[in-house]
Design a protein that fits this description.
The protein is mainly α. It is globular. It is a multi-pass membrane protein. Pfam families: Sugar_tr. Belongs to the major facilitator superfamily. Phosphate:H(+) symporter (TC 2.A.1.9) family.
């Protein structure tokens, strides 16, 4: 570890794991949970809204959202997420992580409650289901509210207070209190530290140090989300084919929501959760770089198989093979780029620009999600088998592009954030980068 680093930063890197770290993990996890809940419940809500508000008694068929309305409902969520990531990511570097996180959580609470109070009536249909979609949306306010309470009890991050606010003394006090150790302020050393890293996002210095990193984190997240959101947003249509749910004409609206939720739980339990926990176990030994490479490659393999063998796999006698391939795709998404594309932007960039660069990367992901939702989903809307096969092959190709773009980022395991970003006085060169991949 470099001697040029501030004492408070060295303390953060070398501190033993204690309650502060557990609390920080829970707060970050609850933030991800709230975001994921609000975003992915939309696919089930949109199905339910169609059955409630577009039901025609004369047709004796379940109602369905018109294509343009469905796109609007899903599009609002994705556009709002993309815009919010860019705006609040930038504000996070300007106003502080704690303050901006608090503001976003309060907005999420207010909007979740208000969305559940939207006007509407479904008196031709099932009144219980009208209450259900409102309750589902309003429940999203609860984790956001709990997260706000716990985040406000914690101080601003030590790195932000010291490096961006320029108050090494306050950072030492805050981190010393939560880590239960005494930390030297290093106020005199701070000026030298800051002057060595005084460059903007659009400077030649940033491009020299981190230009390829930003291109790499943005492109890989973009390409991942094309495939990932194509699968997630169409789960409600794929599950009947896999035999995990009944056709919507056979069940009530409430029963359909239950069956879809149950099927999503099964996929999460067998594919998504294990993938995440494999990442937790192996990320420090294998490293972010190789986990991302393997994840992209295996996703591409399984999607290619489904693309070539779709007609064979959708037959009743092969439905569990289809389910296994589908689950393995999610496993390697999470034991792969769906984990590492979150991690790498949080580690590669300097403190002053970390939130902004992470926001740019995440927003690129949501741009990919829009292509998945409005491009791939719209292309396969008529459920034409040949179109679905071509779409799966296309998604396999995007994953291989993600595999290639991973080589634009570098391994970060085993190093401090200042060492990774070069803030401690070191500048990573190509030979160092190659060594980190060994």
């Amino acid at each position: 570890m470099s001697s040029n680093n501030l004492a408070v930063l060295n303390a953060l890197d070398t501190a033993r794991t204690q309650w502060y770290h557990v609390t920080a993990i829970v707060i970050a996890g609850m933030g991800f949970f709230t975001d994921a809940y609000d975003l992915f419940c939309i696919s089930t809500i949109s199905k339910l809204l169609g059955r409630l508000y577009y039901y025609d008694p004369s047709s004796k068929k379940p109602g369905k959202l018109p294509h343009n309305v469905n796109n609007f409902v899903i599009g609002v969520a994705l556009v709002g997420t993309l815009t919010g990531q860019l705006v609040f990511g930038w504000l996070g570097d300007k106003l502080g992580r704690k303050k901006v996180y608090g503001v976003t959580l309060i907005l999420m609470v207010i909007c979740a409650i208000c969305s559940g109070l939207s006007f509407g009536s479904s008196a031709q249909s099932e009144p219980e289901a009208d209450f259900m979609w409102r309750i589902v949306l309003m429940i999203g306010a609860l984790p956001a509210l709990l997260t706000y309470y716990w985040r406000m009890k914690m101080p601003e991050t030590g790195r932000y207070t010291a490096i961006i606010e320029g108050n090494a003394k306050q950072a030492a006090i805050d981190m010393g209190r939560v880590l239960e150790i005494e930390i030297q302020a290093d106020q005199d050393k701070l000026a030298q530290f800051k002057s060595a890293n005084n460059y903007s996002l659009f400077s030649k210095e940033f491009f020299h140090r981190h230009g390829l990193h930003l291109i790499g984190t943005a492109t890989t997240w973009f390409l991942l989300d094309i495939a990932f959101y194509s699968q997630n947003l169409t789960q409600k249509d794929i599950f009947p084919t896999m035999g995990l749910t009944n056709k919507d004409v056979e069940v009530s609206a409430l029963r359909e929501v239950f069956e879809t939720s149950r099927a999503m739980f099964v996929i999460a339990l067998l594919g998504t959760f294990p993938g995440y926990w494999f990442t937790v176990v192996f990320i420090e030994s294998i490293g972010r770089f190789y986990i991302q490479l393997v994840g992209f490659f295996m996703m591409s393999v399984f999607m290619l198989i489904m693309g070539f063998k779709y007609e064979y796999l959708r037959q009743e006698e092969h439905k569990w093979v289809f389910a296994a391939l589908y689950g393995l795709t999610f496993f390697f998404a999470n034991f792969g780029p769906n984990s590492t594309t979150f991690v790498l932007p949080a580690e590669l960039f300097p403190t002053r620009l970390r939130s902004t660069c992470h926001a740019i990367s995440a927003a690129s992901g949501k741009a990919g999600a829009m292509i998945g939702a409005f491009g791939v989903q719209s292309y396969t809307l008529d459920e034409d088998v040949n179109k679905i096969k071509r779409a799966m092959k296309f998604l396999a190709f995007t994953n291989m592009l993600g595999f290639a773009c991973t080589f634009l980022v570098t391994e970060t395991k085993g190093r401090s954030l200042e060492e990774i970003s070069g803030e401690d006085g070191g500048v990573e060169n190509e030979s160092q980068r190659a060594a980190n991949h060994q």
